[in-house]
Amino acid sequence: MANVIKEGKITESRLEEALAARDRLIIELLVTILDEKLVVERPVLRERLANFVQLSSHDDELKDTLYALIQKL
């Protein structure tokens, strides 16, 4: 049976950190599901995530970091 989701409150000073963590968890979940179901092969998934990074408005240093993180998936 599924666990009940705990209610929380937004702490403004930690909002950006929480958003980044949430996004990371969502991506990890999607990668796990897609990989387990063999819906998308891992190299194809990495390529598509890299395409999203390339189209993003992040600076070059952040893009490089994101590419490295994608390769770790």
Structure overview:
The protein has 73 residues and is mostly helical. It is 68% helix and 0% strand. It has 3 helices and no strands. The chain has helices spanning 15-37, 42-55, 60-72. Helix 2 (42-55) runs antiparallel to helix 3 (60-72). This is Phosphate-starvation-inducible protein PsiE.
Topology diagram in text:
Blueprint: H1 15-37, H2 42-55, H3 60-72
Helix pairs in contact: 2-3
Protein name: Phosphate-starvation-inducible protein PsiE
Organism: Lysinibacillus alkalisoli
Can I get a quick summary?
This is Phosphate-starvation-inducible protein PsiE. The protein has 73 residues and is mainly alpha-helical. The chain has helices at residues 15-37, 42-55, 60-72.
Task: State the secondary-structure class.
Answer: mainly alpha
How many β-strand runs?
0
Overall 3D shape: flat
Portion of residues within helices: 55-70%
Distance between the termini: 29 Å
Radius of gyration: 15 Å
Question: Which features characterize this protein?
Answer:
single chain, 73 residues, mainly alpha, 0% strand
